[in-house]
Amino acid sequence: MTDKTAVMICGHGSRDDNAIKEFNTLAGHLSKRLPDFDVESGFLEFATPVIRTGLDKLKQRGAKKIVCLPGMLFAAGHVKNDLPSEVNNFAAENPGIEMIFGRELAVDNKLLEAARSRIEAAEKDAASEAARQDTLLMVVGRGTNDPDANSNVSKVARMLWEGMGFGWAEVSYSGVASPLVDAGLAHAVKLGYRRIIVFPYFLFTGILVRRIYDWADAAAASHPEIEFLKASYLNDHALLIDTFVERVHEALEGNNAMNCQLCKYRDQIIGYEADVGAPQAGHHHHVQGIGTDGEDAHDHGVQGGHHHHHHKD
């Protein structure tokens, strides 16, 4: 039993075993980087252990303060509704434990550097050489029904475009938002660039990342005159781990408020006016803990590690 601060790392979850393994590898790195904290991890949906299981383990080990850290890039519905619902419900049932909700990873210079290294690695492995001015960068986001989160993908693309000196940059999404990757690439090939780099701005692999690469392969087959490169997603890049660690300390120092300026739940955003004031309620109970599709779908918890999150929505 311990009274030291705990950290609960809250992952999205996936039906893909490799995505879960990558998340748990990252959580293991974080546990080593946070030796003074009791660390656990869990998933919002699809995989086990669910977040509540991790929180209960921390409680059983004597945690009196838990920092819940979203393992997600941007603040859309999961960060604004589903995770706060989990944290608030646990807090209401356990008034003796201080719950702190950390902010999402967001647009961060360290993550931009990590993205640059993934893109540069793809260029290094290319079969031929092409100048950056002759290259189009396609940054692919997950896609949500939150325009603020979607717009952050455009900001990442712009920062990489200007910072790395590409001739052009486009944005597309793996789902929900438009354009989807296939439509985005259909447009991009018309712009006349010799090379197109497809970069999924994702944390981990999974069905969506494989779909992105399949779309890139299809575009390459249809346009042999253009060289298509597939850059890796972020995965466990050292700068990503640094960013997670920074979010923990921000939460404990009280400097972790997310940017709510264009939040559709606070302001009347064009096309989403009806969402203003919607309650923070979870929407994924039907898929919590149902497991991945693989044979090793079981409890993948990280022992001895925790996250806690702060959210001032």
Descriptive account of the structure:
This protein has about 325 residues and is α/β, with parallel strands linked by helices. It folds into 2 domains: about 5-105 and about 235-285, Rossmann fold (3-Layer(aba) Sandwich), CATH 3.40.50.1400; about 110-230, 3-Layer(aba) Sandwich (Rossmann fold), CATH 3.40.50. It is about 40% helix and about 15% strand. Strands 2-1-3-4 form a 4-stranded parallel sheet, sandwiched between helices. Helix 4 (about 110-125) packs antiparallel against helix 8 and helix 6 (about 180-190) packs parallel to helix 7. Mean pLDDT is about 85; it is low at about 295-313.
What's the gist of this structure?
This protein is an alpha/beta fold and 313 residues long. It is built from 8 helices and 8 strands, in the order βαβαβαβαβαβαβαβα.
Overall average residue pLDDT: 85
Question: Count of DSSP helices?
Answer: 8
Low-confidence stretches: 293-313
Do you know the CATH architecture of the largest domain? 3-Layer(aba) Sandwich
Helix content: 25-40%
Instruction: Please tell me how large the radius of gyration is.
Output: 20 Å
Which fold name corresponds to the CATH topology of the largest domain? Rossmann fold
Q: How many β-strands, per DSSP?
A: 8
The structural domain count equals 2
The largest sheet is: 4 strands, parallel
CATH class of the largest domain: Alpha Beta
Q: How far apart are the first and last residues' alpha carbons, in Å?
A: 33 Å
Shape: elongated
- The SSE string, one letter per element, is EHEHEHEHEHEHEHEH
Please render the helix and strand layout as text:
Layout (H helix, E strand, L loop, with lengths): L5 E6 L5 H17 L4 E6 L7 H10 L4 E6 L6 H17 L4 E4 L7 H16 L10 E7 L5 H18 L3 E6 L7 H8 L6 E6 L6 H16 L4 E4 L7 H16 L60
Parallel strand pairs: 1-2, 1-3, 3-4, 5-6, 5-7, 7-8
